[in-house]
Design a protein that fits this description.
Mean pLDDT: 89
CATH class: Alpha Beta
Structural class: alpha+beta
Bound molecules: zinc ion
Low-confidence stretches: none
Distance between the termini: 30 Å
Number of domains: 1
Strand order of the largest sheet: 1-2-3
Radius of gyration: 14 Å
Number of helices: 3
Number of strands: 8
Largest sheet: 3 strands, antiparallel
Shape: globular
């Protein structure tokens, strides 16, 4: 599973990923920061146990402003945020899982 297109919509503050199976994921930029997968944000999990809990998140100026997205090899993208945070590496697997989790919790419209 890999993206065929990654498109950032600056006006809507969204990231759209078109996958090779045809699925289109739409991620609010804020969600990507809230769900930053790095150890500093999510804590460190070793052997299924939380080794280092994530610190309480405190709003930082610019934390929800995405500066850049860079490809990491063939398996992930790395996000750089305006507050200087750049350790979040979003693998394709993580983004797909995020897409599913996010859609599951979103309210359904009849
Ligand atoms: Zn992080």
């Amino acid at each position: 599973m890999r993206p065929v297109q990654i498109k950032r919509d600056s006006a809507a503050k969204e990231l759209r990923i078109t996958w090779d199976d045809g699925l289109i994921s739409v991620f609010p930029i804020k969600l990507l920061r809230d769900e930053c997968p790095c150890a500093g944000c999510k804590g460190e999990v070793l052997f299924g146990k939380v080794y280092k809990p994530a610190p309480l998140s405190i709003f930082q100026e610019g934390m929800y402003e995405l500066v850049s997205l860079t490809a990491v090899g063939q398996y992930a993208i790395q996000a750089v945020w305006k507050d200087g945070h750049d350790t979040g590496i979003y693998s394709w697997e993580y983004l797909r899982a995020l897409d599913e989790a996010f859609k599951n919790t979103a309210p359904t419209t009849p």
